[in-house]
Amino acid sequence: MIDAQSQDELERVLSHYPLGGLRGAQRPQHGFVNDNWIVDTTAGRFFLKHRHPTLSEPAFVHAQHALTMWLRSGGFPAPELKRTMDGNTLCILDSECYEIQQYIVGTNYDHHHTAHLEEAARTLACYHSVVSSFAEHELCRHECLYTPRQIRENLSHLVRTWQATNDAESADLVACIGAQVEELAARFAEHGRLRALVIHGDYYADNLLFSGDRIVGVVDYDKSRWQARVVELAEALIYFGSPRPGDLKHLVYRGYPKWELLTPFLLAYCHNTPLVDAEAEAVPDYMQCIWLQMSLWRLRDRAKRQAEARGALCEVLALACWARDHREAMTEACRSSSRHHGSGAGKRHRARVPQKTPASERGVYMIKAIIFDFGRVISAPKPVTLFRAYEEELGLEPGRLNRIMFGSEVWEEVLVGRKKSDQYWQEIGPRLGLQSGEAIASFRQRYHADEAINEPVLEIIRRLRSGYKLGVVSNCPAGLGKWLADWRILELFDAVICSGDEGVVKPDPAIYQLALKRLAVRPEEAVFVDDTLGHVEAARALGLHGIHFTTPSALEAQLDQLLAAQGGLPQSG
After folding, report:
1. Fold equal for 114-339 and 361-378+452-566
2. Fewer CB atoms inside 10 A, N or C side of the chain?
3. Distance (Å, whole) CA 514 – CA 517
4. What's the mean pLDDT when you consider all of the chain?
5. Which position has the higher pLDDT, 201 or 408?
6. Residue ranges of the domains in the chain?
7. What is the sign of the dihedral through the CA atoms of 426, 432, 436 and 441?
8. Alpha carbon distance 486, 295 (integer Å)
């Protein structure tokens, strides 16, 4: 049950977004640094994040948002960021920072399911591939996360806190750990320059969402930063390569890695993003560094009795010894995994972008049809300034227009054809403050006159016309065909599926199946393009190829890649 204060806060935040009114809210199962909510509105379900003050520096947040949008443009399953009425992805109210994301439906990672382990590795490789050419200053100014120097500092602090050297056995353990740190420091000095990129920074089970054996969402980029990519690979090997439950009692790490988990993870990761020799040699060193640094850091502020201190230090030393004793085997496993597919260490490969049911895995196919959404894809998005002009003219507060027009039950009825457009405007007009039929007709005419074709997308459609069947599937009032005819582009399409004419809306599978039937193609022979990710995911679930539309240039690149086996996207002219 949501309390009154939280409800007021959520309603206040939502008033700045075109996402409808609040219907309910609940706390998510994971994520306790930020003040997070799963909110249900009249427009759907969303994830609302009230950022912790330490994670709210606007330049840093905008850099993270730029990363998320970059990933999505490359086909990676990062959540869609919702924009405020002003077109911003960050909402600042009284110095408090909020953001709203698409809510991704998915199941949790299963530590006992090998297919999930391999998919987690492939998706991490895909992330590293997509992000390899991304650089944002605010994310690139961090120091190395793990260094022998930081281990020394943590160990010294722990010795002072626990007075560990007052006990002979504990003193011996500290000396052994210190010797391991010095050996590690010597090896770190030999690493040289390692390939760096913006790592996810928090790649573990709670941030992965599955549909069956496929990852459909990777969330939480709050810890993204510039690091050597082997840092994140080492973190992942420790996390995903350790069994549950483990044998250790005092540490955040519960057990030693198992080769039956490490090997398939490495093979899946290196299939598309192989390691060079220097990286293969650095992986076990970073595993040892992470174990030592994080274990000592987590222990240093805990008051321990001597017996507990000795037990904890024994476990820290045991982990360090495991890394030392398995260093050569781990290095060779990294090299072998990189050679396994005949790639040759260091050769660049295109990472597979996770999808629910990739058509290419079901056999040979040829794409025959491209299906487009209409609103904000074929038609150009209306600028926020235009909506502000409407609202000023009508005397409405910012954001109110969209909530009235598209967050009501009347709109839902017109989308499935239960009401005609004339009825819709007659009912919605008075809610906008339009009291006469003449006023309603005037505003309606102006609103529709401001619609425009997305010319760069239209150019892509014209290029496709010579070689592919083309279709439109849109959630809109009845009569889309006439709209396209008025724009003189109806002849470009072989099928036009309008929800108001058919009585069914996306993401209902029936509307996609209707389009396939009218175009006379199988799911694997069709591509579906939409600016709403949930509609794309629904199409993918049926076996279509899905492209989440963000910009015309990104669409052009994705189509060219998808159609590469057929000569790529046809050239203009």
Report:
1. no
2. C
3. 5
4. 87
5. 201
6. 4-102, 114-339, 361-378+452-566, 384-449
7. negative
8. 68
pTM over 0.70: no
Residues 6+ apart with CB under 8 A from 364: none
Q: What residues have CB less than 8 Å from 488, skipping those under 6 apart?
A: none
| Helix axis angle, 259-270 to 327-339, nearest 10° | 40
Assign 473 to helix, strand or coil.
strand
Question: Which structure tokens are listed for 318?
Answer: 């045991």
* pLDDT tens-place string over residues 323-352: 888 999 999 999 998 886 544 333 333 334
The structure tokens listed for 360 are: 């290419």
Q: What is the torsion angle, in degrees rounded to the nearest 10, for the CA atoms of residue 484, residue 486, residue 489 and residue 492?
A: 60
Q: How confident is the model at residue 313 (pLDDT cuts 50, 70, 90)?
A: confident
Select 361-378+452-566's CATH number: 3.40.50.1000, 3.40.640.10, 3.30.390.50, 3.40.50.150.
Answer: 3.40.50.1000
* 562 has a pLDDT exceeding 90: no
Q: How far apart are CA 407 and CA 40, in angstroms?
A: 12
Neighbours of 358 (CB within 10 A): 15
| The CATH homologous superfamily of the domain defined by 114-339 | Aminoglycoside phosphotransferase (APH), C-terminal lobe (3.90.1200.10)
User: What is the model's pLDDT at position 146?
Assistant: 94
Note the CATH architecture for domain 4-102. 2-Layer Sandwich (3.30)
